[in-house]
Specification:
This protein is of the alpha+beta class and 297 residues long. It is built from 7 helices and 11 strands. The longest helix is centred in the C-terminal third of the chain and has 44 residues.
Length: 297
Amino acid sequence: MIKNDIENEFYQPIAVSDTIAQNLSLMELFDPQITPADRDVTSDVAEILDSINKAFGYKMIFAICDNTGNYYTYKGLSRTIDRYNDLDDKWYLSFINKNIVRELNVDTDKDNNMTLNIFINRLITSDDGRLLGVCGAGLDMANLCALMGEYEEQYGVEIYCIDSSGIITLSSDITKIYTAYPGEIDFNELTSDIPIFEDLGQTSKVSTYLEDLGWYLVMIDNNPDKVDVGGIVTVCVIIFVFGVFIMAMVFAFRISREKSVAREIENSKKIAMTDKLTRWRIEEATTTRYSISLIIT
């Protein structure tokens, strides 16, 4: 349930980033073969992003033209990135060099008071595969951390999302974001969404892979009052077997009852078809009399 809830939080911003990347008008504005670099496309790009913002209710959206480096929001031109020299913009070069379509990135948002956010970055490419830019949508980290806290309180566990380098990307404690996860994780085993359970004595750990996000989910149960899973399973098996036994008894009783009723009906027919004085069956007597009559004739 926790896994599904976390993934559901990212489905809409992923859909928003895909919508921006597949907008044909935006692709043309960012394509140097169609739109010259010196043409001011700010109002056109802002209009496209604003329409998507109104449709999805996501203000934390952006689009970057690879040809010019211009960074746009639904408000217009925000700045021009320097992918080679500015440390805050090196994520752009890192992302496009990975040859992946989508990536989740934890970063500060310069357009929203430098708040810490999770951005869903998405490539914008032409029909023939040329890079046109990068777009995306963001999620407020503070809101996500509060949501993790609610899950932890509800289920009595610690929850961490970790990237492939072992860095915490999501936690109920925002101060732990972008720090190294203190425990051990075997990333080679977590290649599918099948969870791995580990009994650590006083605690237990469940780890699984979030394929759509490219992260790993770790849940640690520190509750000393463990649920006796074996006992619960045993009780369930006993109840199931007892239920099958009862059903078998009911079925056998029903079959026996049906046979008894059938016998009673057959006996009633025999009694109805038998003469009480001669004890002959009526149909036999009728047949005999018919034969005698035929001979006399």
